[in-house]
Amino acid sequence: MKLIPVIxxxxxxxxxxxxxxxxSYVPLQTPLSRTAEPCEVVRGLRAHYEFDTxxxxxxxxxxxxxxxxxxxxxxxxxxxxxxxxxxxxxxxPPQIESYGEGSFRFTPVIGTExxxxxxxxxxxxxxxxxxxxxxxxxxxxxxxxxxxxVFSAPQIWPQRNIVMSLSHVGANAGPDFERLNxxxxxxxxxxxxxxxxxxxxxxxxxxxxxxxxxxLLASALHAKKIAPEKxxxx
Length: 234
What we know:
Number of strands: 11
Number of helices: 8
Strand order of the largest sheet: 1-4-5-6-7-9-10-11
Distance between the termini: 12 Å
Oligomer: single chain
C-alpha cells in the first residue's frame, strides 16, 4: 500500500483543504511545521514519515489558470529524491510541457474536473503513454466532475488512477469505499488510489484488504493519526 502525502497550494502557501470548499481554505496550521511555507511543510512531514512520492495540487492553476510552478520548483530543488505528482489543471500536452518551463520533471495528474472531453484524454494517452500520467476521477457530493464519458471508458484509463472524493477531504468521514470499489471493479488490473477521508491506520488496512494500491493523505498525517512506523516506502 503506497501512502502519498498531499500539499494543496494557494498563493504559494499550503492550505488546509476542507470538503472542496476552496473559497474557505486557509493557511495550514500543523504541529509538523512552524509555517505554511511549502518547503517547511514538506520538511515537517519528512521528519515524521518516510515517503518517496508527494502529491501537489496547484489550486491557483486549477481554478484561476495562474501557475505556482515557482513554488513547486523550490520543493523539487530541496527534495530532489521525491517523485512529484502534480495536479495543475492539465488538459493537453503543451500545458504539461510548459509547466515550470521544463525546469524539473514530474508526473502529471489529469483531473477530470478540468478535462474538456474524452478526446482530450485519448490525446494525452497517446502523447504521454498510459504509464506516464495519473488520472484523477473527481467527485463532489454525489456528482462526477468532468465529462461523463470519461467515467465510463475504462479502456482509456491509464495504469494509475485516483478516485478523488472532494467532499470527504478534511471531513474525517472515512474514504468513499463504495465508489472506490465501483471503479476498481471496472478495471481491476489498474492501480487505484483513494483520495479524501482517510482518517487513520484502520482505514488504510481496510483499503489494502479491498485491493486499493495506495492513498493520498493530508489531515490524518498532520493530526498524527498515522503512526510513524506505518512506513511509506521510498
